[in-house]
Hints:
This protein has helices at 6-37, 40-52, 55-79, 85-104, 106-120. With 129 residues, the protein is mainly alpha-helical.
Amino acid sequence: MEINNVKELRTSIRQLEEQTEEQKEKLVKQFHDTYNSMKPINILKNSLNKVVHSPDVVEKIVNTGMGVGLSLLTNRLVIGKSAGVARKLFGTAMELGLANIVARKAAPVKLGALNILSKIFRKKSKTVS
């Protein structure tokens, strides 16, 4: 841009000052955004958000939880509140085995569990005579 007189010079200076102010505001905003994103709590939130919204991770967590829950339930049923050493060892081995099976074959276990629960909680039809 070629400046030929004082009026054009002042106009150009004013435009450059406005442009400088806009750039300064953008820079300050970017600094605050970067500063906030680097806070430990925000880093943790973002990381957890990524984990929660990842279908593979959620599926693995659900499968593991199912395996552990089922194995603990079985352990309680086999061992009970008090038992001997042999019974505790058997219960622990059974618990680990079930957790491993459920973690590897979660889909069939889910279907079986849902089938059993639907039979248990199925509404009984009343026969009218």
